[in-house]
Design brief:
about 80% helix; mainly alpha; single chain; 2 domains; globular; about 0% strand
Amino acid sequence: MSTKALSAQLRLVLDLAPLAVFFIAYRLADLIWATALLIAATLVSLAITYVCEKRIALAPLISGALVAVFGGLTIALNDELFIKMKPTLINSLFALILLVGAYVFKRGLLKYILQLAFTLTDEGWRVLSVRWGYFFLFLAVLNEIIWRSFSTDFWVSFKVFGMFTLTIMFAMSQFRLISKYEVADEKA
C-alpha cells in the first residue's frame, strides 16, 4: 500500500473535527458525552492520518494520548476536572520541550516540525521556538484561570474558539520574524 501526503485542507479538517465534535456534543448532551466523542473523533483522526501517511507526527500523537488518558479519567470517574486540565498539561509539556530545547540545548526544536514549511537560520528557529514556548505557557496559565474561575459553558467555548483564535493570531504575528530569519532559496 502506498503512502499519500494529506493535503493542507484535509489536515486542517482532521485537526479541527475532534474539537467540532466536542463542541456540538457538549451543546447537545453534556461534558461526559462530549469527552467520549472527543476521544473517538481524535482516534479516528489519528487513524486516518496513519492510514494515509504511514506515520503520525509527535505533537498530535502526544495530544491524542493525553486526550485518551484524561478523557478516559473524566468518563471513568465522572469528573470534568481531568478534561479541563488536559489543555494545561499539553500546553505546559510543549512549552517545556521548546524552552528546554532553546535555553538548555541551544536548539530551535520547531525546526523538526516546521522545516518543510519554512527554511530559517538556526537562530531563527531558536527564537521562533522560544516565542512558541512562551505562548504555550501563556495558554496553559490562561486555561487554568478560565476553568477555575468560570462556568463549564464558558470553558468549553474558550477551549474550542478562544484557544484556536489566540493560536491563529499568534501564528500570524510570527510572519515578520519568519521573513527576517528566512534563508533564501538557493535555486532562485
